[in-house]
Amino acid sequence: MTKPAPAKPRRTRLSAADRRASILTAATEVFAERGYQRGKVSEVAARVGVSEPVVFQNFGSKAALFAAVVERAAEQMCAQLAGAVAAGTPVAALVVQVTSPAHLDQLHAQGSIGVLFGDSVAATAEPVVAQAGQAAVRSVADTLAELLRQGQAVGEVRSEVDPGAVAWLLVSLISARSLRVAAMAPAERDRLEAAVAALAVGLLAPA
Questions:
Q1: What string of DSSP letters covers 150-206?
Q2: Which of 2, 54, 88, 98 gets the most CB atoms within 10 Å of its CB?
Q3: How far, in Å, CA of 110 to CA of 113, rounded?
Q4: Which are the contacts of 92, defined by CB distance < 8 A and separation ≥ 6?
Q5: What is the domain partition of the chain in residue ranges?
Q6: What is the Cα gyration radius of the chain?
Q7: Domain 62-202 in CATH: superfamily?
């Protein structure tokens, strides 16, 4: 009597929400590593282990997929900022961390979410992508402004500064890091970058 063939292991079927999340995770990696233009939906599909049409069934287009990636990246960044303050990090100390040259280098490095924001805002020929990038940057600025207000309420941040204006100053400082690095004289770069960050932090300290 022949033995029955061993049953093949059943593949776990992901829910629709889990499938979208897995695609977004893979797409974040691909676009952060390669940029929006060079990133391929086929590579996203390969990393997830699905066919390319499955990606399009979930997001419709490459532009819509990238927009969703940028939106989620902004949500995660805002949650990290708010979470740090909720966990007890003083607002001024958080600003020191996010504006430090080491952190800015990491944020703008290939493979980081800073690449996503830069690509999205610059994609003026792709309205869906550009609008997502603009909304993402606004959400980060809004989160910073709210954290600065919280800092003012407990005396950690100077009361007379405009939280919204300072938030946009910080966003500008963060986003322009690559421009400064490219233009500054190498011998002066480290000193000037540290001084720029110190000026931003100095705006917040109570008299």
A1: HHHHTTSS-TTS-HHHHHHHHHHHHHTHHHHHHHS-HHHHHHHHHHHHHHHHHTTS-
A2: 98
A3: 9
A4: 151, 156, 157, 201, 204, 205
A5: 62-202
A6: 21
A7: Tetracycline Repressor, domain 2 (1.10.357.10)
Query: The tokens of 86 are what?
Result: 């909720």
Name the 3-class secondary structure at 145.
Answer: helix
Q: Residue 188, Cβ neighbours under 10 Å: how many? A: 10
Give the whole-angstrom CA distance, residue 90 versus residue 195. 21
Average pLDDT for runs of 10 along the chain of length 207:
46 76 95 93 95 95 96 95 96 92 88 87 86 94 97 94 96 90 90 89 83
Q: How far apart are CA 56 and CA 59, in angstroms?
A: 5
CA 139, 144, 148 angle in degrees (round to 5)?
A: 145
Q: Which residue has the tokens 């407990």?
A: 154
The C-alpha angle with vertex 21 and arms to 137 and 129, in degrees rounded to 5, equals 35
Placement of tokens 């954290």 in the chain: 147
**Which amino acid would we find at residue 152?**
Q
Q: How far lies 72's CA from each of 12, 27, 135, 191, in Å?
A: 25, 11, 11, 35
Model's pTM, two decimal places? 0.86
Query: Residue with structure tokens 């993402």?
Result: 136
